[in-house]
Design brief:
heterodimer, A: alpha/beta, five-stranded parallel beta sheet, five-stranded antiparallel beta sheet, B: 123 residues, alpha/beta, Rossmann fold
Chain lengths: 559, 123
C-alpha cells in the first residue's frame, strides 16, 4: 500500500510518515499541492493524505485537481489538518470528493483506524466519487475563498505581529551587542564571519559580513591563510566547549592586549552550529596592572631599604646600649671608689681632731682649741659636700639606698634641734617646733633628716632676726613638714630656680653664702624618691616657707 | 680585757680606730689585709672583729664569709666598717653574716657606744 502525503511543515511530514510506516504502509511525501500532484501523476498512490494550507497549491485545489483527473479520481483522498476548524471547511472538503476530514491532534490508533476504514471502503467500492466536476459549485468556492482570505488576513496579521516582536527582540539584541565595549562576532563551523557588532566594525571597518568572509583572512594583519595559532573559536567549534585566551592582537590597526572568549551555539539537537567570539581590549587594564606591579616593586624596594636602615640603626643602638651599660658599670665603680677614697682621709682628719679636742691626748690651750674646731668644721663641711655629690650620683645611677623603716618623728625633731640649737642661738634666732606628741611613719629617717637639715640650715643661713618654725601636720595618708623663716625671702623671678642643681641665688647686698648649691636639688630628688612633694612659698623681704610631704608609708626603690 | 681584731688597710684609720678602742679599755690586734685578717681571726681568737669592707687584696664580704665558714669563730661579732653603702650593700653584708656596721667617717665620741651595742655590752 503506498500513501502519498502532502504537508509543507517538515516536522509534520516526518511524524505522519513515521506513523504510517509503523503500520506497514509505504509513504511518499510532498511539501505542497503541486509537488503532490506531479508525484501522483508519475506514480499513482493508493491513497492521498493532505494538509490544507500549503504554499503554491493548497489542499483544496489539490483535491479538486485529483478528482478531476480521470486516472487519479478514484484514489481515496483524506484531509488531515489543524488549520481550519470551521464546519464549512469540512463541507467543502467532502463536496470536493474527500473521503475524510481529520482534525489534528488525533490519537495515533484512531488515525490509523480511519485510514484502514477508508481502504476498506475503497476495496468494497463504497468510495463516494463526485458525479460532476466541482466547478459546478462556484458559490461554495466563493464562500471558501472569502473565508480563506479572512483566515489568511488573520494569519498575516498574526505573522506581522510575530515579525514585529521578532524585529523588536532583534533590535534589542543588536542594541545590546552594539553597545558593549567588547567585540562580538558570530563564526560558522567553516570559520565564516556571520555577524559583527559595532565594536568589531569599528576595529575592522573593511569586513563585509554579507560576503561571509573567512575570519583569519579578514582579521589577521596582514590577512593570513591559516587559522590563528591561539584561536579559541576553532577549538570551540571542534569540541563544543568554552575557550578563553589572552593574547596580543591587532585591533583597529593597533597591537592590543586582548582577552578572547569563544562559546558555542547549538541547535535543538545539541549540534554546534556557530561560535560567539568575544574580544575584550585589556590593554589599559594590563597597563594599570603593570604600573601597579611597578609601584608595588618600588614600595617593596623602599621597605627593603628602610628595613636595612632600621637593622643598621638597631645594630648601632645595640652597640650604643652595650657601651652605655659599660659606662653605667664604670660610673657605679667610680661612685663606689670615690665614696671610699674621699672619705678615708676625712675619717682620720675628723677622728683625730675630735680626739684632740676631747682632750684625751692631753690639754690644749684656747687658741689651739679654736683653730682645731675650725679644722673640724671645715672637714665636716667638706664631708657634707662629698656626701651630697655622692648621693646625687647614686640617685642618678639608680643606686641610692633609702633605709625604709618605722621611726618616730618627734625623736627626729629632737635630733634636728640638737644639731641646730647652737647655730640658731648664735644668730639669736628662735627655733620652735610644732607637732603632734607622737607620730610614727614608715619612711627613711636618714633621708628625711637630710631634707629637714637642708631646709633648716638654709633658713638659719638666710635669716638675720626673728624666728624659724618647724611644723609637722598629719594628713589622711601623709605628713606635711614645713620650715618657715622670717628671713630675706625670695624674689618671684627666682622661685623657679630654687630646686635646680648649683643654682644658689645671689643677692648683691649680701656676701656669698656658704653652701654647695645642691641642698634643695638633693632635697627635691629625695622627696620624689620617698613618694612625696616639696614646694616653696616666699615673700621677698619678709620670709619663706618650705614644705615637703611624705606618705605615711614609703617603699624602698628597687634598683 | 676584751680583744678586738681590726682589719683595715689604711694606716691612719687603723691608728684612729685602735686608739679609740685602746682608750676605752680593749686590747687590739691588727691585720692590714683580708688574708692576714682571716689567719689572725682563727689563730688569735679575738672577742670581736672590726672589718673594713674595702680591702686591697680581697672583697670584705669574702673575708666575712671565710671567717664565718671557719667553725672556731661561729659566734664572734663582726662589725663592718663601710663608706656610705650603695643600694643593696647592707643586705649583702647581713646575708654574709655581719653582726652590724658602722659608717665612715667614724665619730670618735659616738663610735664606742655603737660598737658596744653591736657586741652586746652594757653601755
Amino acid at each position: 500500500m503506498k500513501i502519498l502525503i502532502a504537508d509543507d511543515i517538515e516536522d509534520a511530514r516526518i511524524i505522519l510518515k513515521k506513523t504510517l510506516e509503523s503500520d506497514g504502509y509505504s509513504v511518499e511525501a510532498a511539501s505542497n499541492g503541486s509537488e503532490a500532484l506531479r508525484m501522483a501523476k508519475e506514480s499513482p498512490p493508493d491513497m492521498i493524505v493532505s494538509d490544507i494550507l500549503m504554499p503554491e497549491m493548497d489542499g483544496f485545489e489539490l483535491c479538486r485537481l485529483v478528482k478531476e483527473d480521470k486516472q487519479l479520481r478514484k484514489i481515496p483522498f483524506i484531509f488531515y489538518t489543524a488549520t481550519y476548524v470551521d464546519p464549512k471547511d469540512e463541507r467543502l472538503a467532502i463536496s470536493l470528493g474527500a473521503s475524510r476530514y481529520i482534525l489534528k491532534p488525533i490519537e495515533r490508533a484512531e488515525f490509523l483506524n480511519i485510514i484502514k476504514e477508508v481502504i476498506q471502503e475503497y476495496k468494497e467500492k463504497k468510495l463516494v466519487i463526485p458525479e460532476k466536476p466541482v466547478e459546478g459549485k462556484p458559490e461554495l468556492f466563493r464562500m471558501y475563498e472569502k473565508s480563506l482570505r479572512e483566515k489568511l488576513d488573520k494569519k498575516v496579521k498574526e505573522l506581522e505581529k510575530g515579525n514585529r516582536a521578532l524585529r523588536e527582540s532583534e533590535a534589542r539584541f543588536k542594541s545590546v551587542i552594539d553597545n558593549v565595549e567588547f567585540g562580538v562576532s558570530l563564526i560558522s563551523p567553516a570559520m565564516e564571519v556571520l555577524l559583527l557588532n559595532r565594536q568589531m566594525k569599528k576595529w575592522f571597518p573593511d569586513v563585509d559580513v554579507s560576503q561571509k568572509p573567512i575570519c583569519y583572512k579578514v582579521f589577521q594583519t596582514p590577512p593570513g591563510n591559516e587559522i590563528c595559532s591561539y584561536c579559541p573559536t576553532h577549538k570551540t567549534l571542534s569540541d563544543g566547549n568554552v575557550h578563553e585566551v589572552f593574547t596580543d592582537t591587532t585591533l583597529g590597526q593597533k597591537i592590543k592586549h586582548s582577552r578572547i572568549i569563544s562559546s558555542p551555539i547549538r541547535d535543538e539537537k545539541g549540534k554546534v552550529t556557530a561560535a560567539v567570539e568575544i574580544i575584550e581590549d585589556i590593554t589599559n587594564r594590563k597597563q594599570a596592572e603593570k604600573e601597579l606591579k611597578k609601584l608595588r616593586e618600588h614600595l617593596e624596594e623602599l621597605v627593603k631599604a628602610r628595613t636595612g636602615e632600621l637593622q643598621k640603626k638597631t645594630a648601632e643602638l645595640e652597640r650604643a646600649n652595650i657601651q652605655l651599660k659599660e659606662l653605667d658599670r664604670l660610673k657605679s665603680m667610680f661612685i663606689a671608689s670615690m665614696s671610699h677614697e674621699l672619705r678615708t682621709p676625712l675619717n682620720s682628719i675628723i677622728g683625730f681632731t675630735g680626739i684632740i679636742l676631747q682632750g684625751v691626748t692631753g690639754d690644749i690651750n684656747e687658741e689651739q682649741k679654736k683653730q682645731l674646731t675650725m679644722v673640724k668644721n671645715s672637714a665636716n663641711h667638706l664631708l657634707e659636700l662629698i656626701n651630697d655629690i655622692i648621693d646625687l650620683s647614686k640617685i642618678e645611677a639608680g643606686m641610692i639606698e633609702l633605709f625604709i623603716d618605722k621611726f618616730d618623728l618627734s625623736s627626729l625633731m629632737k635630733e634636728v634641734n640638737d644639731s641646730f640649737k647652737v647655730a640658731a642661738a648664735e644668730k639669736d634666732l628662735n627655733l620652735t617646733f610644732k607637732m603632734p606628741k607622737r607620730l610614727s611613719i614608715k619612711s627613711s629617717k636618714r633621708r628625711t633628716k637630710k631634707i629637714l637639715e637642708n631646709l633648716v640650715n638654709n633658713a638659719i643661713k638666710f635669716t638675720d632676726r626673728g624666728e624659724i618654725e618647724i611644723k609637722v601636720v598629719k594628713e589622711d595618708r601623709s605628713v606635711e613638714i614645713s620650715v618657715r623663716d622670717t628671713g630675706i625671702g625670695i624674689k618671684k623671678e627666682d622661685m623657679d630656680k630654687l630646686f635646680k642643681a648649683f643654682s644658689q641665688i645671689r643677692d648683691e647686698g649680701r656676701q656669698f653664702q656658704e653652701g654647695t648649691g645642691l641642698g634643695l636639688y638633693l632635697s627635691k630628688k629625695l622627696t620624689d624618691l620617698l613618694g612625696g612633694e616639696i614646694r616653696a612659698e616666699s615673700e621677698f623681704g619678709k620670709g619663706s616657707e618650705f614644705t615637703f610631704t611624705l606618705p605615711l608609708e614609703s617603699k624602698e626603690v628597687s634598683t | 680585757m676584751k680583744k678586738a681584731l681590726v682589719i683595715e688597710d689604711n694606716e691612719d684609720n687603723m691608728k684612729l680606730i685602735t686608739f679609740i678602742l685602746e682608750k676605752n679599755g680593749y686590747s687590739t690586734i691588727r691585720a692590714e689585709n683580708g688574708k692576714m685578717g682571716i689567719e689572725l681571726a682563727t689563730k688569735e681568737r679575738p672577742d670581736f672583729i672590726i672589718l673594713d669592707i674595702q680591702l686591697p687584696d680581697m672583697d670584705g664580704i669574702e673575708v666575712l664569709r671565710e671567717i664565718r665558714r671557719s667553725k672556731i669563730n661561729v659566734e664572734i661579732p663582726i662589725i663592718a666598717m663601710t663608706s656610705y653603702a650603695m643600694s643593696g650593700d647592707r643586705e649583702k653584708l647581713l646575708a654574709a653574716g655581719c653582726s652590724g656596721y658602722i659608717e665612715k667617717p667614724i665619730d670618735p665620741i659616738t663610735v664606742i657606744s655603737q660598737i658596744k651595742e653591736i657586741i652586746g655590752e652594757e653601755l
